[in-house]
Design goal:
seven-stranded parallel β-sheet; 14% strand; 375 residues; alpha/beta; binds magnesium ion; Rna Polymerase Sigma Factor, Chain: A; 11 strands; four-stranded mixed β-sheet; 44% helix; 3 domains; Rossmann fold
């Protein structure tokens, strides 16, 4: 083996996918892009094909051709292809679940950014990964920070503390929160992300889902995972050990850094163009407790995670649809929590669900919210 890692990027035209390709560009000779999977942004996909010459491509507009040379496959086929060693799952919403399971089944290393995978099927994915001896490495800044804090420790941590920037409406009066427009909500103060994640960050739904992910990734009991607001976005998460000492990871809020950590792990190399922290730019690092009245989605998400079964799949689907309704001006920002809560309340749950039952619950919830949008 020549040490070149052969990878497929699922969601290559999205925010995380594009930044993954930037990291790959910064370390020439280390990676070979075997597959690129996109949704509908064929113009950008064509540019990426031109640059990286993948053997495999995937997109949703199968009537169109973007490459003469690359084979057009489904995401699942690409994720389990024999020439792929490593699969970057950067798809939005629930799209990544089946390809991720297919990749684990065929013993690919997983670099995971799609929240829905562990939220919807955390137990199933982690059990399968253990059985197949496959590593699932997080790309999200918070889970990457926790992973880095845990490296080299032999003791179990006593607490995981996830940081949240609090989004753009942390200090907005509650009565004005109801009037927020999609355009205002899409302007995140710290991170540049896709639309679903940006709105989920403004409601803290994103953080609730990250608690669920942390529970599964690190095997941490629910009561030992906390969330604090840290508006500067410099500390990416913290881990407390039994002696009360805490480790944290600090860096500029730039997704390329956690992506690089996972792609090059265990190496730490310098990418000249990536930013460094300059302490002269930082006046203070501040912390606030979360406000459940302002951010009901955080509690709703964690509760769905604790209840388990098919509830977390319903959480994902209802949230995706509610965010769509908000972005298309059908509901207000505060209604997202209501839509998700009511959908969860109307769900008939299954315990220890099979994959089919998880997908059924996901589809049920999408339809439930869609019909509601029409009401
Ligand atoms: Mg995050």
């Amino acid at each position: 083996m020549d040490g070149v890692r052969r990878l497929a990027v699922l969601g290559s035209t999205g925010s995380i996918g594009r930044q993954t390709l930037e990291v790959i560009r910064a370390f020439p000779g280390r990676f070979q892009v075997i597959g690129l999977g996109a949704g509908r942004n064929l113009a950008l996909l064509a540019e990426q094909i031109e640059e990286f010459h993948p053997k495999l491509v995937s997109h949703l507009l199968s009537a169109h051709s973007v490459s003469q040379d690359a084979e057009l496959l489904s995401l699942e086929q690409m994720a389990s292809h024999p020439e792929v060693d490593l699969v970057v799952v950067a798809t939005p919403g629930g799209i990544g679940l089946l390809p991720t399971l297919a990749a684990i089944e065929t013993k690919k290393e997983i670099l995971l950014a799609d929240k829905a995978v562990l939220v919807m099927a955390g137990e199933m994915a982690m059990t399968l990964a253990k059985q197949k001896e496959v590593r699932i490495l997080p790309l999200d800044s918070e889970h990457s920070a926790i992973w880095q804090c845990l490296e080299g420790e032999s003791q179990e941590p006593s607490r995981l503390i996830l940081t949240a920037s609090g989004g753009p409406f942390r200090n907005l009066p509650l009565d004005e929160l109801a009037q927020v427009t999609p355009e205002e909500a899409l302007k995140h103060p710290v991170w540049k992300m896709g639309p679903l994640v940006t709105i989920d960050s403004a409601t803290l739904m994103n953080k609730g889902m990250e608690v669920i992910e942390a529970h599964w990734l690190f095997g941490m009991p629910w009561e030992n995972i906390e969330v604090i607001i840290h508006p500067e976005g410099i500390i990416h998460s913290l881990v407390e050990f039994p002696d009360g000492q805490i480790k944290a990871v600090l860096s500029p809020p730039d997704m390329r850094l956690p992506i690089q950590y996972a792609l090059l792990y265990p190496d730490r190399l310098t990418a000249e163009k990536f930013p460094r922290l300059d302490f002269r730019d930082i006046n203070c690092l501040s912390f606030e407790m979360t406000d459940t009245q302002r951010f009901p989605c955080l509690e709703i998400a964690v509760e769905a995670g604790r209840m388990g079964g098919t509830y977390p799949a319903v959480l994902c689907a209802a949230d995706e649809m509610a965010v769509e309704l908000f972005l298309s001006h059908h509901i207000g920002l505060l209604d997202i929590a209501q839509v998700v809560k009511l959908t969860l309340e109307h769900h008939q749950p299954q315990n220890n669900p099979e994959l089919g039952e998880i997908m059924e619950a996901y589809t049920w919830a999408k339809e439930y919210v869609q019909n509601w949008g029409l009401r």
